[in-house]
Amino acid sequence: QLQLVESGGGSVQPGGSLRLSCAASGSTLNYYAIGWFRQAPGKEREGVSCISTSDGSTYYADSVKGRFTISGDNAKNTVYLQMNSLKPEDTAVYYCAADLRFMRCLSQTPRYWGQGTQVTVSS
Predict the structure, then answer these.
(1) What is the model's pLDDT at position 34?
(2) Averaged over 10-26, what is the pLDDT?
(3) Would you say 112 and 22 are in contact if contact means Cβ atoms under 8 Å apart?
(4) In this structure, what DSSP letter does residue 20 have?
(5) What is the structure's pLDDT at 74?
(6) Which of 85, 75, 90, 72 is nearest to 35 (CA)?
(7) What pLDDT band is residue 30 in, cutting at 50, 70 and 90?
(8) 8 and 19 in contact (C-beta within 8 Å)?
(9) Could you give the CA distance from residue 28 to residue 65 in angstroms, rounded to a whole number?
(10) How is residue 26 annotated by DSSP?
(11) Mean local confidence (pLDDT), 109-120
């Protein structure tokens, strides 16, 4: 069974950068769609970005377009989320998740989920 572990979260000042990693085990990520999602206290979960490891298709929420970049390294079985120009409103727990169907990522209903990593943007 696919297992996902996030890392790379932390605290950063506004305008700073972080790179989140989502390492998979139990199965190769080939042919999976991987997504990053976030949830801030008192708010609904939000889809941030998705990538298809099959054809490289990507999706970004409007709130992160131009600032975040999703990428994958099949050799390392890992997906990354590079986050630049971070804002206080990016503060949330970030989760990675995977499903064989890209639409499941877009609809925020992927089958496999990681435990999350905290990102805090504050001066």
Answers:
(1) 96
(2) 97
(3) no
(4) E
(5) 87
(6) 72
(7) confident
(8) yes
(9) 28
(10) S
(11) 96
How far is the C-alpha of 52 from the C-alpha of 25, rounded, in Å? 18
What is the spatial distance between Cα 94 and Cα 56, in angstroms, rounded to a whole number?
21
Q: Which residues contact 65 (CB under 8 A, 6 or more apart)?
A: none
Placement of tokens 């990520």 in the chain: 29
CB–CB of 92/63 below 8 Å?
no
Contact yes or no for 81/36 (Cβ under 8 A)? yes
Q: What is the mean pLDDT of residues 3-10?
A: 97
| HEC secondary structure over 33-84 | EEEEEEECCCCCCEEEEEEECCCCCEEECCCCCCCEEEEEECCCCEEEEEEC
Instruction: Please spell the DSSP secondary structure of 89-112, one letter per residue.
Output: GG-EEEEEEEES-HHHHHTT--SE
Helix (H) or strand (E) holding 106: helix 102-106
For residues 114 and 117, give the distance between their C-alpha atoms in angstroms, rounded to a whole number: 9
Closest by alpha carbon to 92, among 54, 42, 55?
42
Q: Over the stretch 40-87, which tens digit does the pLDDT of each residue have?
A: 999 999 999 999 988 889 999 999 999 999 999 989 999 999 999 999
